[in-house]
Amino acid sequence: MRTLAFHVHTSSSFDCFTSPKSVIRFCQKYGIQSVCVTDHETIEGSIQAANEGQSYGVQAIIGAEYHTEIGDIIGLFLKEEIVSRKSMEVIRTIKQQGGISVLPHPFQSHTLTDEALQAIDVIEVFNSRCTDQQNAQSRDLAEHMHKPMLAGADAHFKADIKNCVLTFSTDGEVTPSDFLSTPRSWSASATHPLHMRLSQITKAVKTTDPPLMYRSLRSFVYTTMHEGILRRSTENATVHSEWKGEKHD
Hints:
Distance between the termini: 26 Å
CATH architecture of the largest domain: Alpha-Beta Barrel
Helix content: 25-40%
Strand content: 15-25%
Number of domains: 2
């Protein structure tokens, strides 16, 4: 069995301060053997993580989350940066590099097309930053399209990496073919609302966006007042699910 964290951001993203080395050390500490670093618009963070991972015995899969006209598309096992931001070109380039294309959070900030849905390799059916309804819709979509399933923490803070950990039925490092056919299970829980607000504050700071800072601070204060600084564990249910490796188109 191989544990893996999917959809993790580092300081190479515009909304995260966590260094690639911190991600790797966190994974080693908590027994996460593989991690998919998927920074916004760049593979730089995942390359750094892969280099660090060699020293810590953690497999860091090189990837990125690219924003296209239909929404975000994740590429895994990339060899080079992808320049285009046109969805079908992004998917084709991922496959040309021998990589795997993933549709993250399909019902959050996406305008899906049949062409893209047919071409995509894998669908993220659970995202720790999505609502229960969005995640349910994502799973229904994957089942309807007969696509392999992934679950992701969409971690912007290293502590959030533990929000979603998958277990693949393989003993070695995870390969592209494993994402397409190897059975997997996962345990996952929702990101604390305060962490979601803090990532937006981080984005406002790193992109020097005063209006976003104002809106984010207001949301942070509101969330603090209504959610509390700490959420009781009983209020944050853990979801256990799996994908059995059924044959897909």
